[in-house]
Write a structure and sequence with these properties.
InterPro entries: BetI_C (IPR039538), Tet_transcr_reg_TetR-rel_C_sf (IPR036271)
Shape: globular
Radius of gyration: 16 Å
Number of strands: 0
Pfam family, one: TetR_C_6
CATH class: Mainly Alpha
Protein name: BetI-type transcriptional repressor C-terminal domain-containing protein
Organism: Nocardia yunnanensis
Helix content: over 70%
Number of helices: 5
CATH topology: Tetracycline Repressor, domain 2
Order of helices and strands: HHHHH
CATH architecture: Orthogonal Bundle
Strand content: under 5%
Number of domains: 1
Length: about 130
Amino acid sequence: MDAVEVLAQFVEDYLTAMVGHAQTGRAFLVMWGAAIPADAALRPVFAIDDARFRLGTQTLLRAGQANGTVADSVDQEATAAVVVGMVRGIAAQYLIAPKAFDLPTAARTCRQFLRNSLSPQRDDRPT
């Protein structure tokens, strides 16, 4: 299993689902944003959801490091936060202004970003 490709496909699927179900995607992002204030009632719910999302990403990255498809230098925790921020931020931008950019191109750019950032360099790959 190539963990980078699995993660890249997940990112693409996430973006497709968020905009394919725009009403649900908007509702999720509105509630997620409403959870930001310290006294927000939904804050604990979204904190747990975000933690699970990051943990799943970290688990995938750890497996990729174990099988050599993710560079050893990748910080699992920080990268998980970046991935969550990337997909939620792109989805929010698109739902706010769908004509502002081409979503399939943005998804391909995410895939390339993940490959460039997470894959071991040729010299680092197992032989």
